[in-house]
Design brief:
Blueprint lengths: L2 E3 L1 H8 L6 H10 L7 E4 H15 L1 H12 L4 E4 L3 H14 L5 H12 L4 E3 L12 E3 L5
Parallel strand pairs: 1-2, 1-4, 2-3, 4-5
Helix pairs in contact: 1-2, 1-3, 3-4, 5-6
């Protein structure tokens, strides 16, 4: 099974003070996410590095970059003109509920037949054919 990782999960995993940090660590360990193939977009990479750097400093942001960019189990899909164009019809459906970056994530999930996103962002719950892990963070 392949999982898509959202920046909310990555940031929570990196920041011990994040409200979802313990749950993110638990998911990483229980779900064997370290050993499983994962996909992110370059937009998720950017959000994650920026979010962690804003909270914990530039060094922590660089650590997140290196952990994602050089992890052989994590594939990064880079945004290009074709992907942007193909994202537009998904944007028309979910644009009032999700950011464009999140909609790019959904388009990539559809393209790669990925059904699960690891995210603490409940906005993904409205997306047809996508299951969010964890479903109800607490």
């Amino acid at each position: 099974m392949i999982f898509f990782l959202d920046s909310s999960f990555i940031i929570a995993l990196a920041d011990a003070d994040d409200q979802f940090h313990d749950r993110a660590r638990e998911l990483m360990e229980q779900g064997n996410l370290q050993k499983t193939e994962k996909i992110i977009s370059d937009l998720v990479l950017s959000e994650s590095v920026t979010g962690v750097a804003a909270r914990l400093g530039q060094k922590a942001g660089m650590d997140v970059f290196e952990n994602l960019f050089y992890d052989s189990k994590t594939k990064i899909i880079f945004l290009n003109k074709r992907l942007c164009e193909r994202t537009l019809h998904v944007y028309l459906k979910y644009g009032r509920k999700l950011s464009f970056a999140d909609i790019v994530s959904v388009r990539i999930m559809y393209d790669h037949k990925i059904k699960s996103i690891v995210s603490f962002d409940s906005d993904f719950d409205v997306v047809e054919g996508v299951s969010r892990i964890p479903k109800n963070p607490s």
